[in-house]
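User: For documentation purposes, I need each entry recorded in a consistent format: the amino acid sequence on its own, followed directly by the corresponding structure tokens. There are two entries in this batch. Please keep commentary to a minimum and don't merge the entries.

Assistant: Recorded as requested. Entry 1:
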Amino acid sequence: MANLKEVRNRIASVQSTQQITKAMKMVSAAKLKRATNAIIALRPYATKLKEILENLSASLEGSSSPFIQEREPNKVLIVTVSSNRGLAGAFNMNVIKAANNLIAEKYSEQLKNGNVSIISIGKKTQDFYEKRKYNVIGNNNEVYSALTFENVTKITDAIMAGFIKGDFDKVEVVYNRFRNAAVQFITTEQLLPLPKAEPIATNAKAANVDYILEPSQEEIVAQLIPKSIKIQLYKAVLDSHASEHGARMTSMDKATENAGELLKALKLSYNQARQAAITTELTEIVSGAAALNG
């Protein structure tokens, strides 16, 4: 039977842990509200802009914009969006697994040739790929200290500059897409070159919409396409940020429940140990009295 003091210490430890997980859940819930408002406000704009430009890209064939030019993907950049902290369940590991699967399935030859690079937004994936000697470019973990469009744009500008120079022929982003506090979807999107509209089934609207471009096609290419690329990466980071807080809130809620179950088991163990101690003491008293009477 467990020692009473030992069980009391374990109960105190679990109670302390339960209080911490409750507090972390409350903090994550507050942060989740702000993060959710940000992504909900941006998502319709980003989705519509992407749709317009995917449809528009068909009419921009032969354009001088480097961001829509398809090239043989000899050099590939994978942008992984994770978090700086753990305690969020499988949130970070899911991004790592998805990125690893993407590389293994599509870019194994490029990896063998040393032509797969990683840009990590988040310390967890940064550390993972650095330890495994991948070509990790830069350190963007401080972006979460001030998560603004301007700060994410600095990363996007570096990616677009590398694409123009030929450092990368294709850029893909792996992140958690936010649905609600309990559900996040691992998503892989092509950032560069700008994807074209997917063919649409028969009897549906044609994929290529005939847009009237004003003031000119060149103006659209010069301003709208780069802006769209920046918006898409910013949306991915906001999605991931909201997903992180949702995952952490869910994880801390589960940890609080588990601590409660453990407390029940420990209290039962404590009561059994206390009962056993009382029984032993009574037995000793009865035995002593019997010996004296004898």
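Entry 2:
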Amino acid sequence: MQPDLNYLMRQALDEAIKGLSEGEVPVGAVLANLDGNILARAHNQPIALHDPSGHAEILALRRAGSVLKNYRLSDTILVVTIEPCLMCMAAAISARINRLVFGAPDPRAGAAGSVYDIASDERLNHRIEVISGVMEDECRILMQDFFLARRGKGQIQ
């Protein structure tokens, strides 16, 4: 059975909105098994946790590892609102996730095809299938509105 990627992305967006309400950059992530059952969810928390690695993806991977009692997260799908950075892609590769799904690309720091393409680098011992553009507009608008509001040029709706 194919998982409903729009449902999973909606869950990731809900996490991003939680982060937004806490003053964090609004990025959300969920990790699901291949049937689409959510194992873990998280949003950015580097400010709250005083942790530069407190990205949504890292936190979701950590939580899923605890749930599964394993650092290998094979047969899972990581769903993220924004294309992951180098740190998060390295963690996903180390965890051996099968598939990465993201909403909007990150043309400044994206490591799943925009700036870097770590997911398919043949020099690494694991590759990840990447699906981009799921609910892209919603993900991009949330991020754009956040930064416009932060710069005093708009309000988050």
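Summary note for entry 2:
Strands lie at 28-33, 38-43, 76-82, 99-104, 129-132.
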